[in-house]
């Protein structure tokens, strides 16, 4: 079918317009069925929090994602746990053994000085693609806009492929207030000076996702998407939901 005028979407091995899902323990059998139908809508898979460390059938799950061209990595909480216990070298060895090519450097739970995180990125990028996360999981922590901009800029210049804006799976921290409202002034300020194609906005709910689609366009990078929501999200991106209905009329275009 190809008779409707829809917003232009990036396809194939995308570098932006990414959908990054969060896997909080989907059984491998169930995952096979989901990816069989919806893999074309998923680019990155985060095995959430520190669950990868105790997940059964982890190697099989990683292989399954990779067979469908999806890039798996482990949540930043596991990185922070390894940092706290001085086990980063063991962590990297384990990732290499598992065939994981992406690693997250975060600061959401355990406070790691910015300078040290940047040094870690410089070390990790020798062998891995690095994603950094900016923002705290503490809903009462309110970083100034200048600090958000500075950290994102520093991480991109340090060699990170993408920077994630913290939002938690609940959408109640980081770029959201504790009631789940989007800090729209913060987002607009970030977009004024930074390349949105290098930022993954955590958007765990349909409301959050539709905000970013309408604000930035159908090819915004979105993270912490639930596996069950990937088809709905793609429909939203393509103007097939009431709240994004007029996207094609705005003539969103891919760069030449």
Automatic annotation (TrEMBL):
Pfam families in UniProt: ComA
Signal peptide residue numbers: none
Origin superkingdom: Bacteria
EC number: 4.4.1.19
The entry's keywords: Lyase
The keyword Chloroplast is assigned to this record: no
Family recorded in the similarity comment: Belongs to the phosphosulfolactate synthase family.
Protein name per UniProt: Phosphosulfolactate synthase
Species in which this protein is naturally found: Anoxybacillus andreesenii
